[in-house]
Amino acid sequence: MPVEKMNLVQAINACLAQEMERDPNILLMGEDVGVDGGVFRVTDGLQAKFGPERVVDSPLAESGIAGTAIGMAAYGMRPVIEMQFDGFAYFALHQLVLHAAKMRNRTRGRITVPLVVRAPFGGGIRALELHCEPIEISFINTPGIKVVCPSNPYDAKGLLASALQEKDPVLFLEPKRLYRAFKDDVPTERFTVPIGEAKIAREGKDVTIISYGAMTRTCLNTADNIKSEIDCEVVDLRTLSPLDEKTILDSAKKTGRVVVVHEAPKSGGFGGELAALIAEKALMNLQAPIQRVTAPDVPVPLAKLEEFYIPDEFRISRAIRNAMHF
Amino acid sequence: MPIKTSAEFKIEYMQILDESGNVDASLDPKLSNDALLEIYRQMLLARTFDRKCMNLQRQGRMFTYIPVEGQEACQIGSCFALEKSDWIVPAFRETAAYIARGMPIKTLSYYWMGSEKGNSAPKDVNAFPVSIPVGSQMLHAVGIGWAAKLKKHRTIALTFFGDGATSEGDFYEAINFAGVFKAQMIFLCQNNGWAISIPRSKQTATQTLAQKGIAAGIYSLQVDGMDVLAVYKATKDAAERARKGEGATLIECLTYRLGPHSTSDDPKKYRNQEEADSWKKKDPVDRFKLYLQKKGIWNEALEQKLQADADALVENGIKEAEGDNVPKLEDMFDYVYAEMPLVLKEQYEELKQIENEKKAAGE
User: Fold this and answer.
1) Which residue in A85, A189, A204, A93 sits closest to A141, CA to CA?
2) What CATH number belongs to A3-187?
3) Is the separation of the CB atoms in B160 and B88 below 8 Å?
4) Where are the domains of chain A?
5) At what angle do helices A153-163 and A8-22 cross, to 10 degrees?
6) B154 within 8 A of B223, measured Cβ to Cβ
7) Of all helices (H) and strands (E), which one includes residue A75?
8) Closest partner residue to A314 among B113, B195, B354, by Cβ?
9) Class of domain A199-324 (CATH, top level)
10) Which DSSP letter does residue B151 get?
11) How far apart are CA B270 and CA A237, in angstroms?
12) A94, A99, A131, A262: which one is catalytic?
């Protein structure tokens, strides 16, 4: 397949354009997604191409966006809605958690909500307050909605294409500090990356690092920088719910040493779930306690303190060594 | 049976100063010369600080900044009508309101320099922190005004929000609670025409935003938001009604954001320059200056003195903030709970240990 160099923004934009050509039922809606092309320019040019009925500048109302999208999805459309920043998704929480995620089950399959919720995700861009909230666990702990979080442009394009053929609602988390961080070779033609499959982003034999989103990049860099000392395997989850247990467990069994890394606070964070899974199903293969590298249990700070909050290579390599030399 | 009319309403619009600075004598709130000059001093200070912040952001000395230029009359006029014990509950574009309430420039600078210290008002400044999630803060003002009523205090709360915020569900819940419980408070809507790229006409199909307050049983009106005297008078009247137990008021100020939504945004992409230029002619600071000049209490020497004072306050405040803004690890932990739980203490100790290791490793 022919490829083009694309960053994350370009890959998502290209995917949306391609999918909208393919499926006339796809409709984009959100705050400033039309004329302005989105605050991160992810939907740039799409309103000009597909018109204001398919790329909708909505009123400033996240609950309204999510709630009406549920009705649209139930009625046969495929809405792709944007939460302008992750923190603002909390305004739509009751619609997404109480309605979108449960509709299929509550109606025994009579009504379904094939809805894609896009949200710029995570910190590291020195954004305004409450613009970088670690929302993933609220949705991972909500059965009925799938949660996807790519770590690179290729996966983003393929996963979003899959999300747009899903039968259930999908939360699509876009790591905002990767939006323009680097480019990948991305096929210009349509392709899919299946939802529910993790990827071995780097093979190694000594220690397994498990992560997702922007932290995957930090983990890969750490693995490269420590390779003369310790040979790390990096598991990029890509889909947080439903979880690809097999890839995680196979890697954990192979190396016997596991480091789990995420940006969200530690207590009740996804790292605990991953550690529990490995403890349940691979405890006897472990040679060291599972290490968690996460934010501390504090509110996401303003820009000045961000460097203390987000796990960095130093902290990850420290945890890798702790696992290795236990 | 003939069809009857069940309800009718009207929305009044008030302007006291016209664009040439002429005052309507019948509506003139007749403030003292000292009061008028104090309002002007605050307007100049707010504008000076606001422009400075835009520059500092471009120099990388501040992070994202949200400019207020064009909306000074809405914020300073309304705050001038409040008493010291009253509370303001701002959104995120209320730098001029904070200045009017006496928030130090140093504190305001901290916020845009990325430090939580900027949200910590001094004890004698009754101001809620910046509220980023659009529309969510109005309910807090209703709660304050409701509690003040229960405690039989004369305190009122005033909340700021924009045209975009009236689309959020929380807005409707706030006006409804305020109506039902006759909360001692004021909804101060700054309808500046744009919610980032979305014009007011695409935000809501309603004729005025003020009439949404009528729907909740709240006295509501429109004022010229570029006219500081009109905003002052509307707020003063609303405050009196609230203190007398007559409930909340919604004031829709027709104003304009002369600059971008934030330093991350380019308004050229969604609005035309002619529109911005036409609003610039209504500039609230220029208009008020014309009025003071016509009244004979303004001259060039005074202008220079006020501007020099504003420059000095701004420079000093920024210098103080920049001189004391090194991030400390403990700042992230100390205020999460009244008393730090053991688990958090351990996390703090671990990160402190890591910081020491980093230093030892020369990072």
Assistant:
1) A93
2) 3.40.50.970
3) yes
4) 3-187, 199-324
5) 30
6) no
7) none
8) B354
9) alpha beta
10) T
11) 39
12) A131
Grouping H, G, I as helix, E, B as strand and the rest as coil, residue A76 is: coil
Q: Rounded CA gap, B193 and A36, in Å?
A: 16
**Nearest CA of chain B to the CA of A297: how many Å?**
7
Shortest Cα–Cα distance, B44 to chain A (Å)? 26
**Inter-chain contact A309–B332, Cβ cutoff 8 Å?**
yes
- The per-residue pLDDT for range A117-136, each reduced to its tens digit, is 999 999 999 999 999 999 99
For position B207, what pLDDT does the model report? Answer: 97
Same fold, A3-187 and A199-324: yes
Torsion sign across C-alpha atoms B99, B101, B102, B104? negative
Respond yes or no: is residue A325 known to be catalytic.
no
Give tens-digit pLDDT for B42-91: 999 999 999 999 999 999 999 999 999 999 999 999 999 999 999 999 99
A127 with B363: Cβ contact below 8 A:
no
Q: Report pLDDT for B362.
A: 87
Q: Using CA atoms, how far apart are residues A57 and A38, in angstroms rounded to an integer?
A: 9
Per-residue pLDDT reduced to its tens digit, A210-262: 999 999 999 999 999 999 999 999 999 999 999 999 999 999 999 999 999 99
Q: Does A90 touch chain B (CB under 8 A)?
A: yes
| Cβ–Cβ gap A39/B265 under 8 Å | yes
Please tell me whether residue B4 adopts helix, strand or coil conformation. Answer: coil
What CA–CA distance (Å, rounded) separates B88 from B138? 10
Q: Is residue A17 less than 8 Å (CB to CB) from chain B?
A: no
**Quick check: A309 and B195 CB within 8 A?**
no
Give residue B1's pLDDT: 87
Catalytic residues of B: 257, 261, 270
Query: Cα(A16)–Cα(B148) distance, rounded to whole angstroms?
Result: 51
Cα distance from N-terminal residue to C-terminal residue, chain B: 85
CA distance B311 to B52: 9
